Amino acid sequence: MSEGDVRYWVGFNKVPGIGAARLRALLDYFGDLEIAWQAQEHDLQQAGLDRRSLANLLNTRKELDLDGELARLARAGVQVLTWDDVAYPPNLRQAYNAPPVLYVRGRIETRDEWAVAIVGTRRATVHGKEAARFIATGLAQAGVTVVSGLALGIDSVGHRAALDAGGRTIAVLGCGVDV
Prior knowledge:
single chain, mainly alpha, 2 domains, 3-stranded parallel sheet, two-stranded antiparallel ribbon, 5 strands
């Protein structure tokens, strides 16, 4: 995917109220995100955007410097993966309402197709932490990548146990590190 294409994926991803379903509707209607990004208000309404999403899009288009945003991501060492990207994780692509855009720092490897998520409460009990540690250790020793958030509690126990066992982990953040 070209950088020109990625910029519009990133742009739409920055618009409050435009998630997977609305982005899919825009793609279906316009056939191309660049055309959708530059579309007139009336055409965006015809594509099914509600008033709030439309207002958010118009404001974001006015305020967001797409080239500057791509440069910021590049400086941070972030790779952008979209539904259309061959590197987008195939198992995630099949999930209902899969995120249209992933921001990746680090590597996604072929072996990560064998992955299990370990997620839970931030206020984990002793038993919960022991269970997460046991499961993550076993998965890591079997060569399975452990996926979790970066929250305290079960998430961090899962990462630590897998790493201590010589395994690989992937941290997933739903809203970015700058929140």
